[in-house]
């Protein structure tokens, strides 16, 4: 092991990035280096430690046991340093031309775009991106800086991610106003006798009713299945199918789509809406501003 006063800490920065990406070329792109410079840095670190940190594969590299151990010891310290430095980063919403990316669930994305345009009076662009179905994809993108913020209906399970429960969304049953069998209310038995336009909640690997109901439900007869809330609402408006929707969003389309909102005839939980960000950006001015704008749009 080298003496600490001769140790190049930049080598650890390269190591941490290669460990996360599993690729010299991807790390080179993220660190604004050439692949050969990344490879050279890892060789230098191997020599300094007297250990091999990565083995080459057909595609990319694979971390050795020593690399796993080193990452566990070094990563928290570097995150603490990064958090301290990022807290000093200056940001002015009036002067910036920066673009931010936010993951947003499909069922909220169109409404979110409209609300953000109303509350964001700065020169910054806030780009909404459909939330991936896989938690690993979501939080890998957040922690590597591919996106700046996540809006989700599940709280994060990772230690490096901070979160805030912003609001709850009520759920209602939606039906065509000219439905031949359903009037101003619907009973439990009638609800399950009708066909349903089912909204898939991809983050739950399930459908909305089955996920949010407080008790197990009988099997519903399927009319159609939808990943998009707006596709589901349009289908309900032009068929005899029943659907479920966040009440606030259904009200916005009630008159234009000729749909009626009904109380659901069984107990159902509200949808939780969380905002999530990297803990290392807790005190970062730009991320703090973005969080405030997104929270404001969710509460409007």
UniProtKB/TrEMBL annotation:
Coiled-coil positions: none
Key words, A-Z: DNA-binding, Transcription, Transcription regulation
Chain ranges of the HTH lysR-type domain: 7-64
UniProt-listed Gene3D superfamilies: Periplasmic binding protein-like II (3.40.190.10), Winged helix-like DNA-binding domain superfamily/Winged helix DNA-binding domain (1.10.10.10)
Organism of origin: Vibrio astriarenae
Entry protein name: LysR family transcriptional regulator
PANTHER family: HTH-TYPE TRANSCRIPTIONAL REGULATOR LEUO (PTHR30118:SF6), HTH-TYPE TRANSCRIPTIONAL REGULATOR LEUO-RELATED (PTHR30118)
A molecular-function term among this protein's GO annotations: DNA-binding transcription factor activity
Family statement drawn from the similarity comment of this UniProt entry: Belongs to the LysR transcriptional regulatory family.
């Amino acid at each position: 092991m080298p003496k600490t006063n001769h140790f190049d800490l930049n080598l650890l920065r390269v190591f941490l990035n290669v460990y996360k990406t599993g690729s010299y070329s991807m790390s080179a792109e993220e660190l604004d280096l050439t692949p050969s410079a990344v490879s050279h840095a890892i060789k230098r670190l191997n020599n300094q430690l007297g250990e091999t940190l990565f083995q080459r594969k057909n595609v990319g590299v694979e971390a050795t046991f020593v690399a796993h151990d080193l990452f566990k010891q070094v990563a928290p310290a570097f995150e603490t340093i990064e958090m301290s430095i990022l807290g000093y980063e200056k940001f002015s919403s009036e002067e910036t031309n920066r673009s931010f990316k936010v993951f947003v669930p499909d069922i909220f994305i169109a409404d979110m775009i409209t609300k953000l345009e109303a509350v964001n009076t700065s020169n910054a662009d806030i780009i909404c991106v459909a939330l991936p179905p896989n938690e690993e994809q979501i939080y890998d993108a957040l922690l590597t800086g591919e996106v700046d913020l996540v809006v989700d209906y599940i709280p994060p399970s990772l230690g490096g991610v901070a979160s805030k429960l912003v609001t709850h969304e009520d759920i209602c049953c939606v039906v065509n106003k000219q439905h031949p069998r359903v009037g101003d209310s619907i009973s439990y038995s009638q609800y399950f006798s009708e066909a349903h336009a089912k909204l898939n909640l991809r983050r739950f690997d399930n459908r909305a009713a089955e996920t949010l109901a407080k008790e197990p439900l009988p099997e519903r007869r399927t009319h159609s299945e939808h990943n998009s809330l707006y596709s589901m609402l349009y289908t309900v408006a032009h068929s005899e199918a029943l659907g479920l929707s966040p009440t606030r969003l259904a009200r916005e389309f009630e008159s234009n789509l000729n749909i009626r909102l009904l109380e659901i005839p069984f107990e159902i939980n509200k949808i939780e809406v969380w905002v999530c960000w990297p803990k290392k950006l807790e005190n970062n001015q730009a991320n703090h501003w973005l969080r405030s704008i997104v929270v404001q749009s969710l509460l409007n």
